[in-house]
Amino acid sequence: MVLLFIVVLHFVTCSCKSDAKILLKLKESIRDSGALSSWKDSKPPCNGDIENWVGILCANGTVCGVKLENMGLGGVIDVDVLKELTNLRTLSLMNNKFDGSLPNITQLFALKSIYFSGNQFSGVIPIYIFDGMLSLKKIHLARNKFSGEIPQSLITLPRLSELMLQDNEFDGEIPQFQNGMLKLFNVSENEMTGEIPRSLGHMNVSSFSGNKDLCGAPLESCAPAKLSIGTIIIVVILVALAVAALIAVVIILSRRKQMPEQERATVSPPGRRKAFSTDLDKMEQGTASTEKSQNGKKGVNNIKLTFLQDGREKFNMGDLLKASAQILGSGIFGSTYKAALNAGQAMVVKRFRHMNNVENEEFYEHMRRLGRVNHQNVLPIVAFYYRKEEKLLVYDFMENISLAVHLHGNTTRGRPCPDWPTRLNIIKGVSKGLSYLYNELPSLMAPHGHLKSSNILLDRSYNPMLADYGLIPVVNQDRAQEHMIAYKSPEYKNNGRITKKTDVWSLGMLILETMTGRFPSSFFQQGSKGNETDLVSWVEFMVKEGNADVDQVFDKNMGRKDKSKGEMTKLLQIGLNCCEEEVDKRWDLKEAVERIEQVKEKDNDQEYNSRGLSK
Ligand SMILES: *[C@@H]1O[C@H](CO)[C@@H](O)[C@H](O)[C@H]1NC(C)=O
Ligand SMILES: *[C@@H]1O[C@H](CO)[C@@H](O)[C@H](O)[C@H]1NC(C)=O
Ligand SMILES: *[C@@H]1O[C@H](CO)[C@@H](O)[C@H](O)[C@H]1NC(C)=O
Ligand SMILES: *[C@@H]1O[C@H](CO)[C@@H](O)[C@H](O)[C@H]1NC(C)=O
User: Fold this and answer.
1) How far is 137 from 112, CA to CA, in rounded Å?
2) Binding site for ATP: what residues are annotated?
């Protein structure tokens, strides 16, 4: 009987005891822990919601917060120990003497707030440290000695509302936080440079003061303002010198073998002007050596395009280059330019490097195959140019550029954000185009293979056109595996293979991106690390039944929620189903397309239609 009592007693006190053990272990790693004298095994740290130990927050008898403020503590915070406190939501170390790099909080998944301001922490914050910290709301790191860039991964935290980084040594540019995401933000007294993101334009000036070179609202605008004539003359002279130097460099480089150029995977907004004839002159050197002897002519006009569409007016590179070209974006495979023909018709030229997976003959054959596509949601390749080092693909220009530009681009350029009916129409068009590609290119495992918002082009009326499809067979394998969307899929990560359902996964990611306005974080990171389930698990969490925050999941710029919320949520669910990690459980394309077709613009459309039908 007594034995049983002891056993029961042991179990009753067990969970408190383990909290006590954990905290005492933590205390061992802390220097100058005099202030923690009440941390003793004699009493449990928590008694219901009341704390027996100093600096502890309790709820239901367990530790939910560790709040060690102004205690003169130092040393290292042992995160491996802390992670055993499974209910830990708040961690505050404000105003102590902790030093070294930021504690590796990655493992403390449930944390909502970290207050580390006023310590001696230093060094660069690793980008992965906020991976999967989906609950994190408040990050206070002010008055430390952190340096390097503010981690980009912060913009993927769905609930972040306070970010205090003032009085550190951060440099680089401020990450592009989403509109309305942050309530409190401070980067003053750092070494930040560049333009302040538009989404932070409404913040208090004092949040940005004391930096190296920040501009844009709420500070002064970045455009050079109020220059005196003297300054202008000096600037003009400097620019002229720079241009002369640049031309010299281009000439020198073009005499040498063509240098590999560093490439970036960005969605850069259009608008920057750049004459790409210099680029093409450069590349033309390669052909010149072989072709010059035959026809004696020199210049980009020599570049022969192979046309894939019958009945199209033929033109050559020279025709495209008469007007200056505009750079639309640069990606991992090369840049994209807009160029105008004589008649004023605009064309898009995409440069591709790393496309030598197949021999010349086979490449031509594959291009002819792609050239045969004919569907209202698939953008045909008009012509192409082949050279060993680099290929050019020529498309018709689409008035509204790409979906990516509208979802993530800079809204200053007056581009309206597509509303819900437009987004639904885009997703429906994309799924139809994809379905067509599956029928047309049945031999390809992933008939699209690189489905992402920057490859969804939008025409004048926002109808979507798929681009960059069917390229996996011709792109160099290592490049493809490193950068193409199909290779970011869970099946490739887990089993090293892509399947017939891989494009369905990409479609799912695209749906989530379109509905939430959030860029899947993994696409930022080069290479195959990263965790693309971030967006998926966040959406899953948000649409879970009973989550009062469900409205937060939708992109604020989409507008109009009340009458359409049901259908909008339905589309999100479809997106989630397409993102199902287990390929066997994931829908095939046919099923996905059918489900998407059933989504209506308004919640009561369905009812209305069925009434209409039954009449
Ligand atoms: C404490 O327990 C009660 C009852 O089990 C529960 O309703 C409440 O949410 C818990 N509070 C916390 C902070 O876990
Ligand atoms: C930080 O924690 C994560 C998750 O446990 C782990 O993967 C990573 O290696 C840790 N990093 C360091 C520098 O200890
Ligand atoms: C900006 O912040 C400072 C100090 O935090 C405050 O005194 C000032 O009133 C704020 N200004 C505005 C426009 O909110
Ligand atoms: C930002 O931090 C600076 C420096 O600590 C402070 O003076 C300013 O009032 C802060 N502004 C806001 C809005 O928090």
Assistant:
1) 5
2) 350
